[in-house]
């Protein structure tokens, strides 16, 4: 899962940032596997400029340098993506075994995998 951080409160300066190193993936046979990346120590990062993350679908968002038609398109695209995620959540919530649609997108059906997919799409659709 990816996340964005807003550094406007803490401000400009030097930071030491270390990423998470666990990635989960589905093997060709449908088995859920974990992969750990080697993470190098970060000596330091200097943050400057615009430190706030803008989300197009957030009602409080601003659109620096975007025309009104582009702003409208970005808002529409974000709403459509959110609706798509909501529909996926609804679909996955309504199944209790592997369907062609499910296995094509998410691999072999298992209860834990279904739960993970369901949780991810619920979070995406509620942002």
What does this structure look like?
The chain has 127 residues and is of the alpha+beta class. It has 2 domains: 1-53, no CATH class; 55-127, Collagenase (Catalytic Domain). The chain contains 3 helices and 4 strands, in the order ββββααα. It has helices at residues 68-93, 100-106, 111-125, and strands at 13-15, 22-26, 32-36, 45-47. It has a two-stranded antiparallel sheet. A two-stranded antiparallel sheet has the order 2-3. Strand 2 (22-26) and strand 3 form a beta hairpin. Helix 1 packs antiparallel against helix 3. The longest helix has 26 residues, at 68-93. The radius of gyration is 19 Å and the shape is flat. 6% of the residues are buried. The model has no long low-confidence stretch (mean pLDDT 78).
Low-confidence stretches: none
Helix content: 25-40%
Q: From the 3D coordinates, which CATH architecture of the largest domain would you assign?
A: 3-Layer(aba) Sandwich
* Spatial order of the strands forming the largest sheet: 1-4
Instruction: Give the number of domains.
Output: 2
Q: What name does the CATH topology of the largest domain carry?
A: Collagenase (Catalytic Domain)
Count helical runs: 3
Beta-strand residue fraction: 5-15%
Number of strands: 4
Q: Name the structural class.
A: alpha+beta
